[in-house]
Amino acid sequence: QVQLVESGGGLVQAGGSLRLSCTASEGTLSYYTMGWFRQAPGKAREFVAAISWRGGTTYYGDSVKGQATISRDNAKNMVYLQMNTLKPEDTAIYYCAARYRDSSAFDYWGQGTQVTVSS
Fold this sequence. Notes:
By secondary structure, the chain is mainly β.
């Protein structure tokens, strides 16, 4: 089991960048495929990005392709989401999630970090 903690959210102007971080307060992330999701007010949760537990494969949601980069540093027990050229529509709570190796579902979720993009 892992307990996930996100950080790095905040208020940023349109066109700016943010790097979100996710770590485990308990457990190691090394054997987990990691993902980032976001949920804007009144909208469904949206897949943003994922990275395989070996780190060799990344996946991106259509709405963030070219804008987001997911990475991981297993030695530091960290996963990152770099978001560039932010737009007001990127405003959401961003959640880190984990699933064990290649299992089908993300079973572990963090509390989320708020990202607000001002126009």
